[in-house]
Structures are given as structure tokens and as C-alpha cells.
Amino acid sequence: MRQKSWYFALSCSAALLWLFVSSVLAVPWLRYVAARLPAWYSLLVIAGIALLPGYLMCAMFLSNLLHTRATLPVDSYTDPVTVLVCARNEEGCIYQTIARIVAQDYAGTLELLCIDNGSTDDTCAEIDRAISDLSGPQRKIRLLHCAQKGKAHALNAGLAQVHTRYLITVDADTMLDVNAVDHIIRRLHYSKAACVAGNLLVRSAKNLVQKMQIYDYLISIAAIKRFQGSYGATLVAQGAFSAYETDAVRQAGGWEQCAGEDIALTYRLLAQGRHSLYESSAVEYTEVPQTFKRLCSQRIRWARGMFDGLHAVPPWKQRSFFGGYFESLNLSIIFLDVAFIFGFWAGVLLLLLGRNWLVGWMTLCTLPALAINGWSVYAFQRRQGNLMITQSVLGMIGFALVFQSLQSLCALVGYGQALLQRPIRWK
User: Fold this and answer.
1) What DSSP assignment string belongs to 229-293?
2) How far apart are CA 152 and CA 157, in angstroms?
3) HSE on the CB side for 200, CA within 13 Å?
4) What's the rounded Cα separation, in Å, for the pair 345 and 341?
5) Phi, psi for residue 83 in degrees, rounded to 5
6) Angstrom distance (rounded) from CA 370 to CA 179
7) Can you tell me the distance from the alpha carbon of 332 to that of 337, in angstroms, rounded to the nearest whole number?
8) Hey, is 200 helix, strand or coil?
9) Tens digit of pLDDT for each residue in 240-258?
């Protein structure tokens, strides 16, 4: 951990130097804009669309560059492991999800607890079919019922039936790579962490909405998790595929019914003084929203989930420095989203009116830096093995030009719903 602390200090120091130089160079720009727009607005916009993003990107890029991929322990872990699969109206995919878990290259016993949460379709029938077709001495499948709607309630119902040292959560529409369980459990066991997040990728992309998400998962989400996980403080062990120490989950009180039950749990595990890691070689493929409406609904829920985590354990109550630091950085994301919508796009509108006060042709100079950062993450992902990565030029262009705007707008809606304490629907 001492070496990691040096890496953190080096990457942050370089990022702070970048921030200082950028701030000095931005002074004439600030003076120019402040002469035409309110000074407070000018300062906040320039900080939010240029200075702070530059610091964050620089720190993450350098840290990920310094940290090579952690080698998995040679020795396998072969004790029984429980897999929780919660489902509500998942008749179209639940059988295949179970089949992929059963087919795992894991030498130990896997007990699958499939928790139906009040499905109104043939989900239970599909689970019963899987029990009949796929059960065996090393792969035990059980169907549980949870009448109380809500994913957290279903997960807690499954947790009450877990008798193994470790457990894994898998979403009903997530397909695991054949080595995913072995890799994630090996990392969890030998690191003695409380939880480990897997490497989540897009399973299929049929339209532009899904094709843009290929690069969000492949580059943005993966880079952030790798950055945080390098210091034992991955902030989200996502419910789609993560491994946990069972006792640690129980000590944390299990899952809380909220928009971000996986975020709140991860924060509580970090508050125990334990590590939360990311294993890039534990790969899983998930179905992503097919329409803008569904995508917006998902991102609104994710934005609300950040507030659930902050409510569960605020940054100053985290026992580790890195947990508190990364959680504090999450607060800056709110500012960045506001600045992007009300600053960057206001600058684009002004540019169309012939006033290049906030956005101009010089803005294009940021594209090479973004391309280098994206390519470095993509190259790292390609070294993980036989990843099934769908390529799409149209999706990449859409991700670069449209996706951030959509995500920031949805996030603002989510922040507003969280502040107004709007009720959530089961997801």
C-alpha cells in the first residue's frame, strides 16, 4: 500500500501542477469573459468546463498509467460459493443467465439462489426449467420467493439463506464470461477485501442508444473503477456482478431499499475499514437500455443512488483516506454536470450567435487529450483476454458528441428528485 500511496501522491501532484498552469493560462480568458458576463458565472463555468475536469482527467490518467494490472493469485479457491440472482419479469433471459453461471470454469460448488420478486410472467417457470435441466452435485439451483417488491428486499431474502463464506450477485440479464466467477472470487479471497466489482461490458448493441453505451462501459466506467480500485476504494460494487464477503455484508446491514442499494452497501463496507476492489479480468456482459427513455430512467436512478451513498456514509465518516477522498470527488460531479449544461451549452449557443466567449474553435484542442485517455483505457481492456467487444464508429461518434450531454441532463433530474425526496419505482 505504501507504493500505491506514492503513486497517488505522484499522480495528484502532477494533476495539481496541471491545474495551476491551466489556471494561470486561463486568467486572460476569465478577464475577457467577465467583462461581458457576470464575473461569478464566468469563474464557475471556466472552472467547471475546463479547470476541474482537467485536474480529474490528469490524475486518473496518470494513476492508471502507473498501475499495471494486478496479477491474479496462482492458487485457486474451491470452497462453495453462493450466487444471488434477483428477477422480476425476466422470462426472456433468466434461463440463459443461469446456464452461463452453471457453465462457469469454477472447481468448487456453486449454489444459485434465484429470488423471484413478484413476477407476473413466466419467470418462475423458466427458473424451474433451469432447475430441472441444469442442476447437479456441483451446481445447486433453488427458487426463492420474495413478495415484498424491491430489489434490496429480494437480495436480503437471498442473503438470509446464504451459508457460504462468499457470495456473488448477478443481474438476471447479465451473462458471465466462463472464468468470471473464478477470477472474482480468487481476487476477493486472497486480497481479503470486503467486495470486488467485476468488469461490466455491453452484451449487444442494436441501435445508436446501445452503441453509445458500448464506450461508456468500456472506457468511462472501467477507467473510474480501475482508478478507485487501485487504492482499495471502488465506490460501486455494482449489483450486476460483484463478489462479497458474506459476514461483511451482514455486518453492514445488507441492502437498503433505495435507488442505489449497491452504492450504499459499498460505502458501508468501506466504512468498516475494509477494501473494495475492481477485477478487470472478471468479465460480464449486460443488456443495456434500448431507448433514450429507458437510458434516461437508468441514469436518473444512478444519479439518485449517489445521494443514497452519501446519506449512508458521508465522506468525513469514512475510515480510509482514499474512501473519503473518492467519495468527496463524487460531490464535484454535481458541479461538473451543472457547469456542463448551463455553461458549456450556453457557450455553444453564444458561439452560434457569433460570440466565442466560453466555447470556440480552440475547444477542439481538447479532443487529442480525450482521445489519448480513451485509447489508453481501450488498450488496457483489450489485454484482458478474449473480450467480446462490439465495435461501432457511429456509436463512438455519438458517445463523443452526445452522450455526456444526455447523461448530465439526466443526472440533474436525478439530483432534483433526490433533493425533493421523490418516491422511486422498483427497478
Assistant:
1) HTTTB-S---TTEEEEEHHHHHHTTS--SSTTHHHHHHHHHHHTT--EEEEEEEEEEE---SSHH
2) 9
3) 24
4) 6
5) -115, 125
6) 32
7) 9
8) strand
9) 999 999 999 999 999 999 9
The phi-psi region of residue 118 (left if phi > 0; otherwise alpha if psi is between -120 and 50; otherwise beta) is: left
Which amino acid would we find at residue 240?
A
Burial of 296 (0-12, 13-18, 19+ CB in 10 A): middle
Of the two residues 375 and 79, the one the predictor is more confident about is 79
Give residue for cell 460501486.
Answer: 236
Lowest-confidence region among 31-35, 309-313, 381-385:
381-385
Identify whether the C-beta of residue 163 lies closer than 8 Å to the C-beta of residue 82. Answer: yes
pTM over 0.90: yes
For the stretch 373-397, pLDDT in tens is 777 777 777 777 667 777 788 888 8
| Strands ordered across the beta sheet of 81-87 | 139-145, 110-116, 81-87, 166-170, 241-245, 195-202, 276-286, 174-176
Nearest to 312 by CA among 243, 263, 248, 367: 263
